[in-house]
Design goal:
Layout: H1 2-25, H2 29-54, H3 59-86, H4 99-110
Helix pairs in contact: 1-2, 2-3
Amino acid sequence: MLIAGAIITSTGTIFLFLGSLGIFRFPDVYNRLQAGTKCTTLGAFLTIIGVGIMQPDWFLKALLIALFILLTNPISSHALGRAACKTDVPLCEQTVTDKSQEFEDCRRQAQ
């Protein structure tokens, strides 16, 4: 169990590193939110579950914490992205389509 927990924890730390690298490298807030949410959610989940596997007495607590992160991290990221969109934070120049603009246009036409 110790080796399996170490492998899962190491995989989680790799995802956390890649998420932080994406936050550093991506050009705008929307891409950074994607990197921060997807990679860090999976990374934190795997790291915490790996610790729970290595320490079986802590597994239930670790599972509850991991599930809490799994549920709340995407919700908070969505709220941050929506706030950035509402305050007109610009997209990077390489962005090809703006789906939020299409959604707003459809919503205005329906009213």
